[in-house]
DNA sequence: CTGTTAGCGCTTTCAA
DNA sequence: TTGAAAGCGCTAACAG
């Protein structure tokens, strides 16, 4: 059996209150000598206060939950690290929950909050299955929740971190056009994902701003996974062979898939076709070719989300919406051309 | 304030004992009619039992902690997913802790166990800083801990999952030799890592078994990170140009780095130089070239570790050592040659 | 400066 | 079939 506050009290012949005070660093109300005796007993026995018991009274667990689709996806891993770092700095611990996009797991975590196991939750990504009724309800009840890149129709959550998707992709289009490309294919995200819609908008807007006509055959919908980028590119290569000189993928994973397809077709990136991605995964700078990508610091994204949550948990009740701007990381998957 | 068991009891005009029984599915001792009334009240109020209070009595949290160096490393992410999946299946929740290899964070988690916030811990990787005194002590005290790929000198933990590093690399050497390679360079892991030593042993053993002499200049020590694979390869290319036709990297990340260096030198994998890795990361099958790699299923590795822990938590006290065998995933970073 | 007392929300004997 | 009461390990008034 683990040693408890009672054991220490008995050992030192003081009350548990005195021990409690010592543990909690309450110097006032404990004599120097007593205090040292208690401290020594704690050290000798290896006593650790039972934080479950403590939580029961304080209603604080110093624990938060992060809900993501899949930690194996480098984007979520990076985000999780940012969240984890911020939590650690703030003295919080982190629950990890992989949902694979299912809302069942999300509900699980929400229960966790109700069961007072966590002080707050960070939800990421759009759940495509339903209308987020649970989360909406939950936020209305003032539970500490922060949403990351999650857009709920007709509902503005008090704590939200988002990326400028539309603006980011638009800047990427501008960039490609500056580099001489005029025929730019686009591999989008899942039809139901809100941020995919925004990215697509950015693409259209970018073309329009440069007086280039939008062409449906040059747009394909992927699922943000590598394979779909590959497939889409195979499709472009088959049916649109000479109608594009560059591909923008709505995320880096699909851009990597696109590069694979191009390479498998015996062509070269960027010599034959340029490819640009979105998200700016650290991975994109590691592989060949290094993928030129638009994005925010994902680690920072996670960090900010966690900081927002911790602030809220420390009592700050203000609404906050952090809107992160994208920056270009120019690498070598895009080349300049003369005649698009 | 959240609704408690008391509220339900009051609402139904029964004792909290009756409510408790209903919550816990104890049918004996609760009348059909009473039971339904309670169930209805629970549903109406959205009551969730406070699991902190429950844990205090039962001494169970249904929570385990996973301690890894860095979730951003795809190896650990994959492992974490395996652990997470097994935990979810068993009704457990998962704490994630990134240590960056520092033992401070590890100690943190151990405290967590002492504070009865988690029921058990999975520790991964060798801590290179010290002698694992804390963990050893902890295991001796019979705390539920499972070690993954962690080798502690003169100490056999009761619950352990390891990879056949030596045998795996040896098989990889055999494979390359079968494919005609005789001059095989090797990029090892960190000098202090126990599994790096085993992998190096496998390399030497593989050469010896095939009557090939070990040559120190063809061996370089990396740190399991991509950059070190790159650097090592640059070194080989500079000073050992014609002395090798293939490179074995002690992990896939370094193999990817090696491919990058080769490509940057204007050479091609596998045409000019073959590269093989270890770990068999899913990532290795996604990039170009697809990296031929030896390894175990990382997801499975994590799953087994978690299952071992959950078994232990369910009362099984047997010692278990799972020794996972490696398998080759033949892809296209290695080519057969006639004259090594 | 120190201790007594009353819970936190729940489970678990033990009686009724 | 039910409930009263004790207590998990701790904090937090409130006394002394």
Task: Describe the overall structure.
The first copy, chain A, has 340 residues and is α/β, with parallel strands linked by helices. Chain A has three domains: 5-58, 434 Repressor (Amino-terminal Domain) (Orthogonal Bundle); 63-164 and 298-325, Rossmann fold, CATH 3.40.50; 165-296, 3-Layer(aba) Sandwich (Rossmann fold), CATH 3.40.50.2300. Helices cover 43% and strands 16% of the residues of chain A. Chain A has helices at 5-12, 16-23, 32-45, 51-58, 74-89, 103-114, 133-140, 165-178, 194-209, 226-239, 252-264, 298-313, and strands at 63-68, 93-98, 120-124, 145-148, 159-163, 184-188, 219-221, 246-249, 274-278, 292-295, 320-324, 327-329. In chain A, the strands form two sheets. A six-stranded parallel sheet of chain A has the order 2-1-3-4-5-11, sandwiched between helices. Chain A has a six-stranded mixed sheet with strand order 7-6-8-9-10-12, with helices on both faces. In chain A, helix 7 (133-140) links the parallel strand 3 (120-124) and strand 4 (145-148). In chain A, helix 1 packs across helix 2 (16-23), helix 5 runs parallel beside helix 12 (298-313) and helix 8 (165-178) runs parallel beside helix 9 (194-209). Chain A is elongated and about 90 Å long. The termini of chain A are far apart. The mean pLDDT of chain A is 94. Chains A and B meet through helix 4, helix 5, strand 2, helix 6 and helix 11 of A and helix 4, helix 5, strand 2, helix 6 and helix 11 of B. Chain A binds a DNA duplex (16 and 16 nucleotides) through helix 2 and helix 4.
């Amino acid at each position: 059996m683990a040693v408890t506050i009672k054991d220490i009290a008995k050992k030192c012949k003081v009350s548990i209150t005195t021990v409690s005070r010592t543990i909690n660093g309450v110097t006032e109300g404990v004599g120097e000598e007593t205090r040292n005796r208690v401290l020594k007993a704690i050290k000798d026995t290896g006593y650790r206060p039972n934080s479950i018991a403590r939580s029961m009274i304080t209603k604080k667990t110093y624990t938060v939950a992060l809900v993501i689709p899949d930690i194996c996806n480098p984007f979520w891993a990076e985000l999780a690290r940012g969240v984890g770092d911020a939590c650690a700095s703030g003295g919080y611990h982190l629950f990890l929950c992989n949902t694979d996009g299912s809302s069942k797991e999300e509900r699980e975590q929400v229960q966790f909050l109700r069961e007072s196991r966590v002080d707050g939750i960070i939800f990421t990504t759009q759940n495509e299955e339903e209308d987020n009724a649970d989360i909406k309800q939950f936020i209305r009840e003032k539970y500490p929740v922060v949403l990351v890149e999650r857009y709920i129709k007709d509902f503005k959550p008090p704590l939200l971190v988002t990326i400028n998707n539309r603006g980011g992709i638009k800047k990427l289009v501008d960039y490609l056009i500056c580099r001489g490309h005029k025929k730019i294919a686009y591999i989008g995200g899942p039809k139901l994902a809100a941020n995919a819609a925004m990215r697509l908008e950015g693409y259209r807007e970018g073309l329009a701003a440069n007086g280039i006509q939008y062409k449906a055959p040059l747009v394909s919908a992927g699922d943000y996974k590598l394979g779909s980028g590959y497939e889409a590119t195979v499709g472009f290569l088959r049916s649109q062979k000479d109608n594009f000189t560059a591909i923008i993928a709505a995320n880096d994973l699909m851009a990597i898939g696109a590069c694979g397809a191009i390479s498998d077709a015996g062509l070269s990136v960027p010599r034959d076709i340029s490819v640009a991605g979105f998200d700016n995964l650290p991975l994109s700078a590691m592989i060949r070719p290094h993928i030129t990508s638009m994005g925010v610091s994902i680690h920072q994204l996670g960090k900010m989300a966690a900081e927002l949550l911790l602030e809220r948990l420390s009592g700050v009740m203000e609404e906050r919406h952090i809107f992160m701007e994208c920056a270009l990381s120019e690498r070598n998957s895009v080349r300049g051309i003369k005649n698009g």
